[in-house]
Amino acid sequence: MKKYHIRFIMQNLLILFLILSMAIIILIITPPFRSKSVEVKIKSGSSLRDVAQELHNSHVIPSSRIFELYVRAIGSERSIKSGTYRFMPFESPIAAASKLIRGYYITQKVVIPEGRTARQIATILESNNVINAEAFLEAVNDTELAKSLGIPASSCEGYLFPDTYFFNPQCDSRELVSQMVAGFNDAIERIEGTKTKLLNPQSLHQRVILASIIEREYRLPEDAPLIASVFFNRLQRNMPLQSCATVVYVMTEHLGKEEPSVVHYGDLKIQDPYNTYINRGLPPGPISNPGEISLRAALFPPQTDYLYFRLDDVNTGKHRFSHTLEEHNYVEIIPKGL
Fold first, then answer.
1. Domain 108-192 is of which CATH architecture?
2. pTM (2 d.p.)
């Protein structure tokens, strides 16, 4: 009788175990009914329990507790990647877990052109629904963030490397800025090749400022190094750089004006530390975020005797380089009929 009783209990326990196992399996492989896709943002630093609850609240999984147990059972509780994820209708909790563990979050392709300011980049990012422009600029101008990224300035302006990015929509602004600065560091490594870093952070910062001016001045890649040589020669002679690009920067970034098609003589007299017509040396900071061509030109300028340059052909973008002011101001007059 006692053996029968024990056998009966064991059978019931086995049945209960099988029922529970089936229930768990069903909850893991069967998605909740959802006719539309849903996007869920997993914040950086979220615990597994927080993630499971967020998925449950968004009707991605039927049970947060079972999902949590499953992820722990496969040893992936610390492998979930932050980001914004899109879950399709009838996507199983197992598939959802796999997506989170592999980091298959939504990405937005964004092209950041060379020579844009942080403000202009912020507008591009906001128009592509990546991040709020104000939040991005706040991170760019975060002194502590700049310091943590090895930038010897109060802002990351100049270090937001122009490239094609695949951003996580509405990602953390500090992570986004860090990603762009990482792109800058990669570019510097490519430019320097196998050499050790040629400059300390402060000296590199001076080259970044110069590169940001070159970026706004050149039109043809082959002219960038020569423009760099002109600026280096003028700096060595304590001549003002007299870059119209710095005046345009003052007008658009400091005075809030539209970018002018022509810089007038009166504009050259605007009182501002960034105006290189009235101030000698480099401006206090970068006026744009330069690309690899300008950075390479600023890091490795050729040795020339040029002190002046001017746009020689509006259609091709070719510049003419001169050694003297007389040569710079010379305009060739071609007789008619030739």
1. 2-Layer Sandwich (3.30)
2. 0.77
